[in-house]
């Protein structure tokens, strides 16, 4: 290669070349070397100029490398430079000594390349490892390092305290996160490790592990992948003990169940008493003279108002009882062959009696029947909840539409209102427990609910092997729907 080709190769690889005269201290270097050292292209250079820019902590070591009394120079070295603008740069270099006939070193030639980015990456990696190590040693939560098959390589004290194993157990018996999981959750945990392999992340999920002494502990687990120095892929798993939260939920559900049963009895008695009073007053109303009606008619209106309020409270109590049954896994269902069209019509007629001033529009198919295997009362409960919400969330002058379509072996019932609509964020949470319509103005009638209705609806329909959903845009109303398998494809729920 000629000199031009060598210069081109050096420039292409971003390498700077230099030559040092050990007698005069003069430096001759390529433009790339000047740029790496932070010098302009036309300023004469010597060794002292270069050493002045070397970081104070590296200066003595670099000066020894260029010592003319050294016998040879055949080593690489790294050092820091501080440019006139104050910026810090890392360089990696290497050189070769040139000797005279007497064997004395008279010149040095070498190359330099900037490694600032690499050094920054190494520093960031060290800081990241230190932060991870501090988190692991803090024992705020359980942290486990495993391979992608679940074999535990390392864990912190918080995890060991939780599951009862020790580092010695891991070293001796290769404890595996999948194998220590309760049988019903093993497939879920195995899938989480597959997710880590494919996407690099396993989103948090609830599971249950079996401890060394056989106890079952509910956990929240999540993970992410990382690679070590030789690029082997591992998983960092975060483990949170849910025992306290699960016990709190159990106590809460027990409390709700107890309170609901205690409230249900007096409400039933109160409702019965109000109905008896209404019947007696109506009999009296037919017998008394006109002037007495001015006394009886207001009483009948007040009794009707009181009965409506009792019905509202009864509905809230029934919702609490349903939630307690759902949580306990004892939701009662009595399945029978029913006509879904008839159920929808009956529910609409019931609502018409309760809200005679509202317009309910039916858009039902012309088939004689739509046979489904369902719990008759529960399906009417879901449709009634949809209708009640639609009436409540829209103004009195607006109509509510109820329709049904049958497609692909499923019947889909929908209820559409012209209310304020539901935001995208609210649509994600609306089926959860104790979630109410956040897009409604303060003081609306929707605030009377507990936010359990849609959660119960979803649970009931899923128990019938069906689906629920909502389609809504703010300012354009909402459509809530449910889908159930028709009888020719139905499978009796277990």
TrEMBL record:
Its EC number is 2.7.13.3. Keywords: Coiled coil, Kinase, Phosphoprotein, Transferase, Two-component regulatory system. It catalyses: ATP + protein L-histidine = ADP + protein N-phospho-L-histidine. GO terms for molecular function: phosphorelay sensor kinase activity. The keyword Nucleus does not apply. Residues 111-138, 267-294 form a coiled coil. It is an enzyme of class 2 (transferase). InterPro entries: HATPase_C_sf, HATPase_dom, His_kinase_dom, HisK_dim/P_dom, HisK_dim/P_sf, PAC, PAS, PAS-assoc_C. Residues 258-488 form the Histidine kinase domain. It comes from the Bacteria. Residues 128-200 form the PAS domain. Pfam families: HATPase_c, HisKA, PAS_3, PAS_9. The keyword Nucleus does not apply. Residues 75-127 form the PAC domain. This is histidine kinase. It comes from Ktedonospora formicarum. The lineage of its organism: Bacteria, Bacillati, Chloroflexota, Ktedonobacteria, Ktedonobacterales.
